[in-house]
Design goal:
The complex is a heterodimer of chains A (334) and B (489).
Chain A lengths: L1 H24 L17 H35 L12 H14 L11 H24 L5 H25 L4 H9 L6 H21 L1 H7 L3 H6 L4 H23 L5 H13 L3 H25 L8 H27 L1
Helix pairs in contact in A: 1-2, 1-12, 2-7, 2-10, 2-11, 2-12, 3-4, 3-5, 3-6, 3-10, 4-5, 4-10, 7-10, 11-12, 11-13, 12-13
Chain B lengths: L1 E8 L7 E8 L4 E5 L6 H8 L5 E8 L2 E2 L5 H7 E4 L11 H6 L15 H13 L15 H14 L4 E5 L7 H18 L2 E5 L3 H7 L2 E6 L2 E6 L1 H4 L2 H8 L3 E5 L6 E5 L16 E3 L3 E14 L6 E12 L9 H11 L7 E6 L7 E5 L6 E7 L22 E7 L2 E2 L1 H21 L3 E2 L4 E2 L7 E6 L5 E2 L7 H28 L1
Parallel strand pairs in B: 3-8, 3-9, 6-7, 7-8, 15-16, 19-23, 20-24
Antiparallel strand pairs in B: 1-2, 1-4, 4-5, 9-10, 11-12, 13-14, 14-15, 14-23, 17-18, 18-19, 21-22
Helix pairs in contact in B: 4-5, 11-12
Chain lengths: 334, 489
């Protein structure tokens, strides 16, 4: 059994390293790898590597990792295979913050370019508290069904606000749409620095609750009988997942598919034990988003496609293939 | 170990379960019974802390349940709720390992030898070790149920609550599971509270039973105190009969269907066929039979009754298989047939039908009195007796209670002894009046329709006529024996 997981981690880490290398090396200017340790060999290449490619690849990796691990945790917590990081409406809150920033042309002096991600983050946090308090108001024990329905209510409401702003927008539409479809381009190191603490703390909180997530898959009652402090764990997972989602959306827009499909792929390949599902989803999510970003900027270069288009474009067939193989294999056994 | 004191509670502030009190000792198995919706599961949720109490207290090892932290409670108390489907599947080992959750501490808490041993032992006890690496989704309902039982066992708690643990299980696995629970209680002092749907299983495996009715305790006590016909009938609104288990000192409840499938009919002489091989009664309806026959003796329901003539040299060694073959050869079904044997040919038989105020009855007697014995003299003799046989059937078109069956046996036997006396049949060795032969057989059968007889002693209505009929018929059979033997000699 540990052999299985050793293989799983080896594959996940190797594919991540390979995809990072491709992400760095491939592009309108191909970059020889040696500039990594010898910047003097090609200064232009070194500049592109350090200032453009590497932060971009890292940001893609961090966003992919955040969405995937948050998706895995939410699916487990809500016991719902259709749940993803966006189910609880936190991403909609972040989007409203971001779209409002663009729509009203806001710019807070000392934040400058960071006005948008900061406002977005504020939107995410506010939504998280609203969703949770409302769910608690409806049902003291915050049943999973209550949470999902509350999430849907808030998502639709916030979605309508975004639609309203889009409808009232004239020439700025492209900018809003571009942000909504998601992108990790031209963000640079500050964005990477901004998301890192959220990824570290959020992932840690989720992994801290890995055993509780396993138990809660069998229902809250059963988890309680096993000795899980259900209320506390639920709150921790919700906060951890929301932090990751909010941060990811704030820096890159709403990139779909990763948070839904990566946990499923990982579960199909390596099983539903959150002990391994969480870290493996994180690694796979990072890899997938790096590849998608690579494709989005190279496939019809020099034009860049929104990464959200590519995640579904690349992710869906990959998912379909794994789904097909797994069902066939299991059908054969049974 | 567990004290439940005046507990009330339910869902949404409605205290459906009210004023429940009981206690369970260490190593005791308590079964919870009650009709659907009587509050069994709600009560279990209340006493396990899953639902808040509106009144009362639950003490676990003399401490209120509420005073335990979740993990501490899970070390003391394991609960197995009813099986629910779930979307994502773990392997069997992962599911059972979850039972060790309360024993793990800290962030990197490693998997200890204790943990591994508890998990493997639990899987062995529930017989799921061979599926350890399989995913839950590919197991049957019964296998999944056993995995969850293993999970609860892996918790190594002192108290175990079960909610219908035998759901989805076939009888082999029901027995395996309950045997295991029982022996854990006995060997390790595990205290068990379990909801049962099947009161017979509950009676077999529980020390005490608690019967719930409309959210309250109707009765708590040993199985024989709780499974009482009138009480079960009131609580479940179903007619039942309680009988002892054939091997264990526990009551077993049988349902009485309100729609009977048995048609109305009467047995007459016309249903008896006499051939050279046997006298055969083919009844139009199943008869309740109490007999000392060779084949299917004891109490039961049968439609065919045979008195078979065999040669005196008949080899008795493999009688069950041989007799079954004979029954099939006669076109009857062995499981539906009672069979007697005699060395007399069938022309010795006397069959008489009596129309009486107690109901019509048929008596058949073959009286091989050549080797008759006096019961008061046989104690001083060696065991090798010559075989002689008086076979008696009494078939009654009436309803008899169990007491009436036993008394009918007594009355018929007394009548047989009287007939031997009237005909002055002697024990050849002691030269005293004989009382029977060494291998007499008797059969009382009733249609269980028509007139109800509670008793069949010699002064009861049935007993009077039964005695009369058996004496008359036996006397005639003895006379025929003398006559036929006289002619051949």
């Amino acid at each position: 059994m540990s052999k299985k997981y050793a293989l799983a981690y080896t594959i996940a880490i190797i594919s991540l390293i390979v995809s990072m290398w491709f992400g760095i090396a491939v592009g309108s200017v191909s970059i020889p790898l040696e500039v990594l340790w010898n910047p003097a060999a090609n200064e232009t290449a070194a500049n592109i590597l350090w200032q453009i490619r590497l932060p971009r690849v890292l940001l893609a990796a961090l966003v992919g990792a955040s969405l995937a691990i948050a998706g895995a945790a939410f699916q487990g917590l809500l016991k719902n295979p259709l749940a993803d990081p966006y189910t609880l409406g936190i991403s909609s809150g972040a989007s409203v913050g971001a779209v409002a920033t663009i729509f009203f042309g806001l710019s807070v002096p000392f934040l400058g370019l960071f006005t948008l991600p900061v406002f977005s983050m504020v939107g995410a946090v506010a939504t998280m508290f609203l969703v949770m308090s409302f769910a608690k108001l409806v049902d003291r024990t915050m049943k999973m069904e209550t949470l999902i329905l509350t999430g849907i209510i808030f998502s639709s409401f916030l979605g309508s606000m975004i639609s309203l702003m889009i409808a009232l927008t004239g020439e700025e539409l492209r900018q809003i749409m571009g942000w909504l479809l998601g992108s990790v381009s031209m963000r640079g190191w500050p964005y990477v620095q901004m998301i890192v603490p959220f990824v570290v703390v959020g992932s840690f909180i989720l992994w801290w609750n890995r055993r509780e997530l396993n138990a809660m898959l069998y229902g809250e009652e059963r988890a309680q009988y096993l000795g899980v402090n259900v209320k506390r764990s639920k709150l921790q997972v919700l906060i951890g997942g929301s932090m990751l989602t909010g941060a990811a959306v704030a820096v890159s827009g709403t990139i779909g598919f990763v948070g839904l499909v990566v946990p499923h792929m990982t579960r199909m390949l390596w099983g539903a034990d959150h002990n391994h599902l969480l870290p493996l989803s994180l690694l796979h999510g990072a890899t997938l988003l790096i590849i998608c970003d690579l494709v989005s900027r190279t496939i019809i270069a020099p034009t860049e496609l929104p990464i959200g288009v590519i995640t579904s474009f690349v992710g869906a067939p990959v998912f379909a293939y794994i789904f097909f193989k797994q069902r066939r294999k299991k059908g054969g056994i049974a | 170990m567990l004290h439940v004191q005046q507990v009330s509670g339910g869902y949404d502030q409605v205290a459906y379960v009210q004023d429940v009190s009981f206690h369970v000792k260490k190593g005791e198995v308590l079964g919870i019974l009650g009709p659907n919706g009587s509050g069994k599961s709600t009560m279990l949720k209340l006493i396990s802390g899953a639902l808040p109490l509106t009144a009362g207290t639950v003490l676990l090892e003399n401490q209120p349940l509420k005073s335990y932290a979740p993990k501490e409670l899970a070390k003391k108390l394991a609960v197995l709720p009813q099986l629910h489907a779930n979307t994502f599947t773990h392997t069997v080992r992962e599911v059972v390992s979850l039972g060790r959750y309360p024993h793990q501490r800290g962030f990197f808490s490693s998997w200890s030898d204790d943990d591994e041993q508890a998990v493997v032992q639990a899987m062995t006890q529930t017989n799921v070790l061979q599926y350890a690496e399989e995913e839950m989704a590919f197991l049957s309902g019964g296998e999944q149920q056993r995995v969850f039982v293993a999970q609860a066992l892996a918790q190594r708690a002192d108290v175990l609550f079960l909610d219908e643990p035998t759901n989805h299980l076939d009888i082999a696995h029901q027995r395996q599971l309950l045997d295991m629970v029982r022996s854990e209680a006995k060997m390790r002092g595990l205290t068990v509270v379990s909801i049962f749907h099947d009161m017979n299983l509950a009676a077999l495996y529980c020390d005490r039973l608690l019967l719930m009715e409309k959210g309250r305790v109707r009765m708590i006590g040993e199985p024989h105190e709780v499974l009482v016909d009138a009480q079960i009938e009131q609580v479940y609104n179903v007619d039942v009969v309680t009988r002892p288990h054939p091997k264990e000192a526990k009551p077993q409840v049988t349902i009485l269907p309100s729609v009977s499938l048995t048609k109305q009919a009467a047995v007459t002489c016309a249903h008896i066929e006499v051939t050279e091989e046997a006298i055969t009664l083919q009844s139009p309806l199943p008869l309740r039979v109490l007999s000392s026959a060779v084949y299917n003796a004891g109490l039961g329901w049968y439609e065919t009754i045979m008195n078979r003539s065999v040669a005196p040299t008949y080899d008795i060694t493999n009688v069950r298989a041989e007799f079954a073959a004979f029954i099939r050869h006669r076109g009857a079904v062995p499981t539906n047939t009672v069979g007697m044997m005699t060395a007399l040919t069938t022309d010795y038989a006397v069959i008489r039908e009596f129309q009486t105020e107690a109901g019509s009855m048929i008596v058949m007697v073959t009286a091989g009195v050549g080797k008759a014995l006096d019961v008061s003299k046989t104690y001083s003799r060696s065991s090798d007796y010559a075989i002689g046989t008086i076979n008696t059937w009494v078939i009654i078109n009436a309803q008899l209670t169990d007491e009436a069956f036993v008394q009918a046996m007594m009355t018929a036997t007394e009548a047989k002894v009287k007939a031997l006396q009237i005909e002055e049949v002697h024990d050849a060795m002691s030269n005293t009046i004989a009382t029977g032969t060494a291998t007499d057989s008797i059969l009382i059968a009733a249609t269980q329709q028509g007139k109800q007889h509670n008793y069949a002693g010699t002064v009861s209505q049935l007993g009077k006529w039964l005695g009369h009929a058996v004496v008359e018929t036996t006397v005639e059979a003895i006379q025929r024996y003398k006559q036929l033997k006289g002619r051949t000699q």
